[in-house]
Amino acid sequence: MKRVAVVVLAMAAMAPTVAEAQCPLGATCFFGTDVTGSASTRATNVNALNARNAFFTNLIGVGTETFETIADNTTNPSLVFPGAGTASLTGGGSVLTQGPGTEGNGRFPVSGLKFYEATSAAGGGTTFSIAFLNPVAAFGFYGIDIGEFGSQLSLLFTLVGGGTQTWSLPYVATNGQNTLRDGSLLYAGFINTTGFTSVAFLGTNSSDVFGFDDMTVGSIQQVQPPSVVPEPSTVLLMSVGLVAVAALMRRRRRA
After folding, report:
1. CB 182 within 8 A of CB 41
2. In the chain, what are the domain boundaries?
3. Model confidence band, residue 138 (pLDDT cutoffs 50, 70, 90)
4. Which of 35, 158, 209, 252 has the highest CB neighbour count under 10 A?
């Protein structure tokens, strides 16, 4: 079966791809999706996991919510993330349990037995939202079985100090006749060290039900600064300087 993979790095030096162009300015985005599933088969977690791993290489000591300790049918859970504070998830979805090796119309937990299930809103409306008590800088999650009934999922971030950023996830939604995304799996990771206080999940088709699992949140302090690689000219100047210092030390010893 076909497999689609995209890993988006907004800061890439090369010319941006279509997916890169969708990542908001000043942010770094990671995305991968697997479309090897069906209504009764779980998609393989290959491309999505690669995106998750790339996202995590930028983080230190973050916490992940798997929903395992939250009671079934809970609609508005309060969540705790070590080092990043608390968050409140509000909307029309609820926590569900799905036994091992089973799928509910293409939806399943990624880890453990539980996940949050929601019905996509229509016309770009808010499906559900997550508010953070303290500003955070990193947000990642698995999405399950999204897009096979035409819903294009977007994330709306409210930034510290005002303003918003929208990231439309770079997958191709289908219309229900083409079942390519039935039972699909995706991972989306977003980092913006400006900080943001909430994220809203926006949908476009109310026929689309999807799962949400393994939510990771990181504070500004939990985002690792990028490694600085010296420019070639800088390396050359450093080398010349070291040679000059060594020559000077030799002269002093001879004297």
Report:
1. no
2. 18-230
3. very high
4. 35
Domain 18-230 matching CATH 2.60.120: the answer reads: yes
- Here the contacts of 47-51 (C-beta below 8 Å, separation 24 or greater) are 47/3, 47/4, 47/5, 47/6, 48/142, 48/185, 48/186, 48/187, 49/187, 50/5, 50/7, 51/5, 51/6, 51/7, 51/187, 51/188, 51/189
* Residue indicated by tokens 């035409």: 150
Tokens describing residue 163: 């303003």
Which ranges of the chain would DSSP assign to H, the alpha helix?
18-22, 47-56, 232-254
Place of tokens 């479309």: 35
Q: How far apart are CA 184 and CA 165, in angstroms?
A: 26
Tens of pLDDT, residue by residue over 58-117, are 999 999 999 999 999 999 999 999 999 999 999 989 999 987 766 778 999 999 999 999
In b/e form, how buried is each residue of 140-161, taking b as 16+ CB within 10 angstroms? bbbbbbbbbbbbbbbbbbbbee
**pLDDT single digits (tens) 197-216:** 999 999 999 999 999 999 99
Residue 196: strand pairing partners: 136, 159
Task: Answer whether 148's CB lies under 8 Å from 181's CB.
Answer: yes
Running DSSP on this structure, what letter comes out for residue 222? G
pLDDT digits (tens, 9 = 90+) for 139-149: 999 999 999 99
